[in-house]
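Model it.
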Amino acid sequence: MHAYEVLKRPVITEKSQKQALSGGQYTFEVHRRANKQQVKEAVEEVFNVTVLSVNMMIVPPKLGRYGRRVVVKKPWWKKAVVTLAPGNRIPIFEGA
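Modeled.
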């Protein structure tokens, strides 16, 4: 898998912003079949940083609504929390 296929998008929430600013941890939505090694290589290649560790988790499916009665099931997705070496940072999380 190519590096840009592994990383789908950054997950930018209040919690991920705090982790990025204080602990050097960044959160990404990744491909469903990606493993930790692929995520580590992709982040290092795309952002030119040193990755210390990768923690991954599966976000379970949730029910969503459109209107009153239309209930849809949103699919599950995979999330990776990447810890960078001290002194490294990813600038896309700074401006959000």
